[in-house]
Write a structure and sequence with these properties.
CATH class of the largest domain: Alpha Beta
CATH superfamily of the largest domain: Dihydrofolate Reductase, subunit A
Strand content: 15-25%
Radius of gyration: 23 Å
Pathway: Cofactor biosynthesis; riboflavin biosynthesis; 5-amino-6-(D-ribitylamino)uracil from GTP: step 2/4; Cofactor biosynthesis; riboflavin biosynthesis; 5-amino-6-(D-ribitylamino)uracil from GTP: step 3/4
Number of helices: 11
Catalytic activity: 5-amino-6-(5-phospho-D-ribitylamino)uracil + NADP(+) = 5-amino-6-(5-phospho-D-ribosylamino)uracil + NADPH + H(+); 2,5-diamino-6-hydroxy-4-(5-phosphoribosylamino)-pyrimidine + H2O + H(+) = 5-amino-6-(5-phospho-D-ribosylamino)uracil + NH4(+)
Function: Converts 2,5-diamino-6-(ribosylamino)-4(3h)-pyrimidinone 5'-phosphate into 5-amino-6-(ribosylamino)-2,4(1h,3h)-pyrimidinedione 5'-phosphate.
Order of helices and strands: HEEHHEHEHEHHEHEHEEHEHEEE
Family: In the N-terminal section; belongs to the cytidine and deoxycytidylate deaminase family.
CATH architecture of the largest domain: 3-Layer(aba) Sandwich
Cofactor: Zn(2+)
Helix content: 25-40%
Length: 332
Amino acid sequence: MRRAIALAGNGPSNGVNPQVGCVVLNSAGTIIAEGWHRGAGTAHAEVDALSQLTPEQAQGSTFVVTLEPCNHTGRTGPCAQALIEAGVGTVVYAATDPGYASSGGAQRLRDAGIEVIGGVLENDVEELLEEWMLAARLHRPHVTVKWAASLDGRAAAHDGTSQWISGPESRARVHEQRAAADAIVVGTGTVLADNPSLTARTPEGGLHDHQPVPVIIGKRNVPGDALVHEHPLEPLIIGHNDLHAALSEMFDNGIRSVFVEGGPTLASAFIAAGLADRLYIYLAPVLLGGDKVALGDLGVGTLADRIDLNISSVERLGADIFITATPNRKDA
């Protein structure tokens, strides 16, 4: 299974489909084929591995796969049926598929007389597929909220200037994080005030191979000459402030992970609504004072209502401190 997990990492971490790896063993326990999923519309890991086998090799073999074989027809057919038709003997998988339409593959295999063993290194695969799993279970994208602030919690100086609070190492990391997300989300206020391009760029100034879909939330109009219209991908403009509905719309558009980088108003709204699954916090060793705080009203009226954080990592990036945390809350 560890080899299958390593193979899964070869696939793209973005998009509708999860990273999945597969290893095939013969009756002697020797690896005879390997496969992984290379992205939406391509063969799933099991079918990729199956394509490398003769019918005689597939008969009675053991498939070790990181995710329960799918049980539905999308851009490709159901993997469970492909394994049944190939006559495999045993299927071992790590994590159960949480999808409403795609789950049930294990039972389909058992009904066909194939031995099925589930839950092997399940936690490892749950960690690998954290964002995709949450999106599949909640039917909304996984949400990361990011902000940069001074040590006294300010996002800008008194006159509104904010470029740059954080250092070059932090800014480079942010662009890597943008490239890792399906979408980057800002509010119309940020578009009107800063006119950002919302692209993911390399330290040399070029574009990353993967670009997040630019998503703009808010009731104000986005100017026709805004830089976001020059983005390689067409912007998704959501003309209201209902965050639950906005996330549903993103999910329906194939977005499974979003990077919220839209300033204090939008960041605070996601956190207050209980929709922030992860926080990326960049703290610069400067003091600004004033009222330009990094976060606004979070709905915390008294200390008992505070939002506690679980800090998973603290890292030095140049002179800055980068904190990764998750709100300690129930899923919304």
